[in-house]
Amino acid sequence: MTESKVTVEQLAKAALDLDNLLLRALTQEFLRQNPQLSEMNRPNTNDARALAAAASLIELFALRSGQQPPAWTTEIGPLPEKMYLVNAAAIGSYTRRLCDTESPEPLCKRGFLAPPNFLEFL
Q: Could you tell me the pTM of the whole model?
């Protein structure tokens, strides 16, 4: 059975859809399949939101693994308005405050807000 390759486009879509269970599963597989993040190709899309999500996630993973992100991420700008990446931020003031004040920098600089341990694994 051939294993399908997880793409950065799939990660971006799951993040934008707020499907955190899928995003966590895809992220674990993506990181296993792509140990050299600096070699990741730019997503093949003109969707500014998808590009921002992809660049933010790749930069987050690169930061946490002590790697350089791919050069194309520097070309991607922020969202026009902030977006919380966890549903709990919409209903809980504690989670919202945590996201507002401690969101990881690679996410925050493009307008994505999440808890500081977003997509961390033991």
A: 0.93
